[in-house]
Design a protein that fits this description.
Layout: E1 2-7, H1 15-27, E2 35-37, H2 62-74, E3 77-86, E4 89-98, E5 102-108, E6 128-131, E7 134-140, H3 147-155, E8 160-165, H4 172-186, E9 189-194, E10 196-199, E11 202-205, E12 209-211, E13 217-220, E14 226-231, H5 235-240, H6 246-249, E15 256-261, E16 264-269
Helix pairs in contact: 1-2
């Protein structure tokens, strides 16, 4: 499968400009591109104090309708982020739009960065979808730093973790390490598109990446805007899982007990 990582800048609250950038990227892409991944909140920019509801979009609005039509026109799936308004709540959301289903998957960020916890609501679930020979699951930025959401998706059979990212300086190395760890421990591909440039008082770190199911780094971008074509080799999934399978081999129920010793309190797992 050919994918593309769209490492872009965006403008907080300038939805028309951000949408135009996405449309141009898709229209200029290689016709063989099956999936294009964009950064976190690419359509709307981030929530900021005093600017939350005014930047949020509904999933049945004209912006998403434009992208659904674009996906069908170019036979390309799109993964991209936005601030989503649902009732009285606003979420940091990533959607997967496919030519066949339109809005195929919606994921609301479950692990909120400290600066956004007073601004948006956390999501409470993860899910995945089968599409063109792969099972895709979505993660957003800070989610990547926790093993639990990626492992939950892996237990559902996810082959490709798609990460929309808005990681900023000085935390670029944190996500570089985490991306390889999440891919290796779950034996799946990980495709991550990060934001670049300045915005919301931050400098974004770029370094979008593709990681193989054995943790090998297949691609890492620099810090400038770029759209990079990459290929997923499905055989790498089989090779990574051929000799051992972390999900199958893990032991979740090791019994444990606490014991007081002359050296203090210790815990034993055996």
């Amino acid at each position: 499968m050919q994918i593309a990582l769209a490492q872009l800048a965006s403008r907080e609250g300038d939805i028309a400009s951000n949408l135009s950038r996405v449309v141009d990227c898709v229209r200029d892409s290689d016709p063989a591109t099956a999936l294009m991944v964009f950064p976190e909140t690419q359509l709307t920019g981030f929530a900021e104090p005093g600017h939350v509801a005014d930047r949020a979009l509904t999933l049945d609005g004209p912006e998403l309708a434009t992208l659904v039509e674009l996906s069908r026109e170019h036979d390309t799936a799109l993964a991209l982020g936005l601030l989503e308004r649902a009732g009285d709540a606003v979420y940091n959301t990533t959607v997967l739009i496919t030519p066949e289903q339109g809005l195929a998957l919606r994921y609301r960020k479950t692990h909120l960065w400290p600066d956004e916890r007073e601004l948006v609501s956390p999501g409470d679930s993860v899910s995945c979808v089968a599409w063109r020979g792969y099972r895709l699951g979505l993660l957003i930025c800070y989610d990547l730093e926790f093993p639990e959401p990626a492992r939950a998706l892996a237990t559902m059979g996810t082959d490709l973790l798609v990460v929309t990212n808005g990681n900023m300086d000085p935390y670029g190395p944190v996500h570089a390490r985490a991306a390889q760890a999440r891919a290796q421990e779950n034996q799946c591909f990980l495709a991550m598109a990060n934001r670049v440039g300045e915005g919301a008082g931050l400098t974004f770190a770029g370094e979008s990446a593709l990681v193989a199911p054995d943790g090998e780094l297949l691609f890492r971008a620099g810090r400038e805007e770029c759209v990079t074509k990459l290929t997923l080799d499905h055989a790498r999934l089989e090779r990574a899982r051929r000799d051992y399978d972390y999900l199958r081999d893990r032991r979740l129920a090791l019994p444990g007990h606490r014991e007081e010793t002359p050296l203090g309190r210790v815990w034993h797992f055996a």
